[in-house]
Design a protein that fits this description.
One of its GO terms (biological process) is SOS response. By secondary structure, this protein is of the alpha/beta class. The protein has 19 helices and 15 strands.
Length: 550
């Protein structure tokens, strides 16, 4: 329920505030006074697009704020899902900067317009000329039927099956594409895999082969140098080892003359151990090195094959070649098992389609079951609104399964006796459309969660007793829902619990739209003016009193 509406710097409104009651609120005023501007501001709270051209003062920010009492609407889950602070007094705010930038807030937390639209649809239902046009749309008509039939559970079950079907259908299409692509590439992938597999490559082998090639290419030189080094060390007369052995005797003798010499002897002993180890290792290396032209040729050939494959596939290492081979093996394996996977998914698709068809038929039957009841109830209400010969029929056509089900709905309408019902948009006049729309809203008020209903001149084209009957129905709606009605009819305006008057103030340089809550005396005058003009007669005042007291 809307408890407070504040509009600042919007269109002709410099500053406007109203606090509607929980029941029936009336808004009246001359044409062009600003009533439609208020609806535009409310639309911004519900997520409509903003325009900086709508600013009253182009140098200042526009702020529109609505406070809603949502205590009894069970919206805690919505706020939790959207990660918003829940407050029973929910504040929705829109701000439009002079640059045209728009921002939306729920309880002072910035939100996207999509979030605002979702919450707005829960909090308010606005009847406008735009909605009258929407009534001709099949999707809108279907939403009315669904609300009347109370099929939320069936729609949820259908939606689950529909998305499961679409998901499986998409999987089948992808597998079919993969199968076609595999069939085109299968022989090539198999050839590449066999070529790589025949190499029996191991990770790190390339580096090892390159090291071996380096040794084999310089085997003679390496063997010669190693032999000379050994000779320099082991020569019986001039070898370094012989000289060091002689020096060892002197170090052993000196160590008895103090710790320093003892330490030097130990270091010398360590040096000799290390040198002997080097000598042994070098001797082994020299013995193992062979000038093997056959082995050298084999290493060159194997490296050549590795380099060729790397160049062919645009890679730099044996690791990347192995990764490529693994990927090709996966492709070949998947291709070999693709047929089986596709067959399984096609079976699943068939099963999912059958389940979708069953849930779609169940949803459709529940919809069709209320067609006659919906038509009778709307026709009965239209009769009360002066359209005794009105007929409403629902034409249903089965369509391929879509997000909404398997039904295409067309509500047919005829206002006159003997005239075959036709699609709504083709046959209803303005007044007839208003009454039809009101009858639908009246029925839906008990079927849907509509905390606040706004009627924008829904009494257009009617008068007299019909207008009184319509406002009585509004009063019935207002026992359970907050109703805000913009009206030009005195019969309607007189029945509100609160009466707001919108007017233009031309006292300053720029016209301003203002609104005020009328007290009993002001209200009597306004109703009298609505009856007979700006200078109401005594009779007009008497008629106004009668309307206000009935």
């Amino acid at each position: 329920m809307l408890t407070n509406l504040s509009i600042t710097n919007y269109a002709l409104i410099e500053k406007l505030e109203m606090e509607p009651c929980a029941g029936l609120n009336m808004i009246t005023g001359e044409t062009g006074a600003g009533k439609s501007i208020m609806l535009g501001a409310v639309g911004l709270l519900l997520g409509n697009r903003a325009d900086s051209k709508a600013l009253y003062d182009e140098q200042k920010k526009c702020i529109i704020e609505g406070v809603f009492n949502i205590q009894n609407y069970g919206l805690e889950r919505f706020f939790e899902k959207e990660e918003l602070d829940y407050e029973s007094a929910c504040i929705i705010r829109r701000e439009i900067s002079p640059s045209g930038k728009s921002r939306a807030f729920i309880n002072d937390t910035p939100v996207r317009l999509e979030n605002l639209k979702v919450l707005g649809k829960i909090l308010m239902d606005v009847h406008s000329q735009n909605e009258t046009l929407m009534l001709g749309a099949s999707s809108y008509q279907l939403s009315l039927i669904d609300a009347f039939a109370k099929v939320s559970k069936e729609k949820e079950a259908y939606s689950i099956q529909y998305h499961a079907y679409i998901k499986t259908q998409r999987k089948v299409r992808l597998l079919e594409q993969e199968k076609q692509q595999y069939q085109q590439e299968a022989d090539y992938n198999q050839f590449q895999l066999e070529e790589l597999s025949s190499l029996n490559l191991e990770e790190g082998e390339q580096a090892s082969l390159e090291a071996k090639e380096e040794l084999l290419n310089h085997a003679e030189e390496i063997k010669s140098r190693a032999s000379q080094a050994l000779d320099h060390l082991e020569n019986e007369e001039l070898g370094a080892m012989q000289q060091l052995a002689a020096a060892k005797q002197h170090f052993q003798y000196l160590q008895k003359f103090g710790k320093n010499f003892e330490d030097l002897n130990q270091r010398f002993e360590s040096l000799l151990i290390e040198l002997n180890d080097i000598l042994e290792s070098l001797s082994l290396e020299e013995q193992e090195i062979e000038v093997d032209f056959e082995k050298s040729e084999w290493v060159r050939e194997r490296l050549s094959k590795i380099y060729q494959l790397q160049k062919k596939h645009g890679v730099q290492s044996d690791k990347e070649l192995l990764e490529l081979a693994s990927a090709l093996a996966d492709k070949v394996f998947k291709g070999d098992h693709l047929e089986e996977e596709l067959a399984n998914q096609q079976i699943l698709l068939k099963e999912t389609k059958e389940k979708l068809s069953a849930t779609g038929q169940k949803l459709s039957k529940k919809r069709q079951a209320i067609f006659n009841g919906f038509s009778r109830e709307i026709q009965s209400l239209l009769a009360k609104l002066g359209m005794e010969n009105a007929r409403v029929e629902i034409l249903r056509k089965e369509v391929p399964a879509n997000e909404s089900g398997i039904d295409d709905i067309d509500i047919l309408f005829s206002a006159n006796k003997g005239i075959q019902p036709q699609p709504i948009g083709q046959v209803a006049s303005g007044g007839e459309f208003s009454r039809l729309m009101f009858a639908i809203k009246y029925v839906m008020a008990d079927k849907m969660a509509l905390p606040t209903l706004i009627f924008d001149e829904i009494d257009t084209g009617i008068s007299g007793e019909i207008a009184l009957q319509m406002v009585r129905m509004m009063q019935e709606i207002a026992t359970k829902h907050q109703v805000i009605c913009i009206s030009h009819l005195p019969q309607v305006a007189a029945k509100g619990e609160k009466h707001y008057f919108v007017y233009k103030d031309n006292s300053s340089k720029k016209t301003i739209s203002k609104i005020k809550l009328l007290n009993p005396e002001e209200r009597l005058l306004e109703i009298a003016k609505m009856i007979s003009g700006s200078n109401p007669s005594t009779t007009a005042f008497e008629n106004a009193k009668e309307l206000l007291t009935k």
